[in-house]
Amino acid sequence: MGPAAPLLLFLLTWSGPLQGQQHHLVEYMERRLAALEERLAQCQDQSSRHAAELRDFKNKMLPLLEVAEKEREALRTEADTISGRVDRLEREVDYLETQNPALPCVETDEKVTGGPGAKGKGRRNEKYDMVTDCGYTISQVRSMKILKRFGGPAGLWTKDPLGPTEKIYVLDGTQNDTAFVFPRLRDFTLAMAARKASRVRVPFPWVGTGQLVYGGFLYYARRPPGGPGGGGELENTLQLIKFHLANKTVVDSSVFPAERLIPPYGLTVDTYIDLAADEEGLWAVYATREDDRHLCLAKLDPQTLDTEQQWDTPCPRENAEAAFVICGTLYVVYNTRPASRARIQCSFDASGTLTPERAALSYFPRRYGAHASLRYNPRERQLYAWDDGYQIVYKLEMRKKEEEV
Length: 405
Hints:
five-stranded antiparallel sheet, four-stranded antiparallel sheet, elongated, alpha+beta, Olfactomedin-like 3
């Protein structure tokens, strides 16, 4: 027997068990394949059944969808018809408002020049001498753009008519001490606008919504302890603050020379003095108990806060909500409660140029809200309004004061 005989004998001995294992493995694989085929057949049956159910459901839904589409078209047609009727009704209301406007409240020459009924001496109720050639008045409030909703129902937002053209100043609330400053309008309109703003804190909280940004300064009214509405010795005083926005310091302050102050606007009771700026400079709108039915107007020196002139206007306090000044003319905005369409119903020209016959009584665009503040920008000829937390821009159409309405 050769040398390979032992190896051959070993292979012959183990070939039997290996063949048995291979046979069991093949049987196992066949069983697994059969189980998979059975599951695939079940899945196919279920898919066929689901497809049939889906076809039945589709056949049932198609008629319902057709009915719903017809009803939707009918509702759309009805809504368009109603919208057309509302538009016609609004046009008719606008026509009636135009044909039957409220009586204008433009001061007569007699009172402007200090004739009978004039109060005070010296520079009270004297005709104002214009320092610029501005001779425009409002023809109409042309358009409206809602920019954002920021803050509470009362506040103020504005630009500095003498400062950088892009900066936006926002003063939220009627008793606060922190102003938001945005680099540009785009930053203010962002969803997370407050993150883009720098904050300026004033040493004394302001009162109301009569603040003004003018020439790099924040002018605002401060209620001293015991000031208007607080009782005490200072019940009849209101302090004006001139705050430097860049240096964050109080530059000047002055006690406003009017006694027994009351809110000038019957619908904005938190404001005791409303500061305004136009082409002529700095103005103040206020009211006192001496004549609790009408507004007063004062011309201020922006450098010293001194009161240069004062006027008793014929514009009533009742239902007034805000005011602004353009080219030396005070325009008072009126509304109702609950709020309806705001309107410029009274104007007072301190120079006496605008006569009652030439005064336009303008309605604001169709929006039923309440203005907590209005700020005129003479550089842009726009109004910046705060309406129940919404920040709105109104574009104004102007004409010469001498032109007929």
